[in-house]
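2024-03-11 09:14:02 INFO worker-7 job=invfold-0412 stage=load source=structure_tokens
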């Protein structure tokens, strides 16, 4: 997995959160919303803001960020999804290790708890997909590690629902 690509999208989300949504967005308010439940070797439940970003140039891409609290705080928890085209569309899409033209890549990070989990397999069901709103649900298995034990792989199931706003196009 190309981690520069991942961190680039995290930077885009930080910019998007900092500048806010378009006042003409349709949906769940200016910041969107989500709930997430993590079960297995780590157990968490959290909620917060949901936004998405679209790029069309130099390459097509779609990113969805689910962030608890303020992403600038040390205690933020975040689930991020990448898709290999600018428009995933309605329907059920697989979640795997890498983003592609037909599947999402996803990972969960927590700076507060020092937890990092990367998707293995699962799916996302998209119920709304417009240029200003993206909504649905997801469930996937993930493996990763925690700050108190980097040497032992841990397994979790991550599930939730979201109603995201956005549609920013960061094309060059």
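2024-03-11 09:14:09 INFO worker-7 stage=emit residues=172
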């Amino acid at each position: 997995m190309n981690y520069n690509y991942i961190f680039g999208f995290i930077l885009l989300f930080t910019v998007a959160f900092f500048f806010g949504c378009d006042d003409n967005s349709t949906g769940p308010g200016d910041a969107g919303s989500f709930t997430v439940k993590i079960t297995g070797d780590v157990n968490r439940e959290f909620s917060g803001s949901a936004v998405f970003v679209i790029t069309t140039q130099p390459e097509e891409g779609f990113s969805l960020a689910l962030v608890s609290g303020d992403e600038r705080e040390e205690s933020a928890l975040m689930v991020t999804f990448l898709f290999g085209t600018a428009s995933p569309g309605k329907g059920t899409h697989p979640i795997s290790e890498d983003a592609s033209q037909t599947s999402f890549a996803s990972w969960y990070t927590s700076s507060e708890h020092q937890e990092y989990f990367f998707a293995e397999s699962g799916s996302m069901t998209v119920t709304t997909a417009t240029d200003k709103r993206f909504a649905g649900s997801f469930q996937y298995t993930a493996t990763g590690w925690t700050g108190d034990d980097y040497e032992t792989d841990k397994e979790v199931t991550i599930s939730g629902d979201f109603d995201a706003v956005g549609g920013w196009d960061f094309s060059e």
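2024-03-11 09:14:09 INFO worker-7 stage=report msg="The radius of gyration is 15 Å."
2024-03-11 09:14:10 INFO worker-7 job finished
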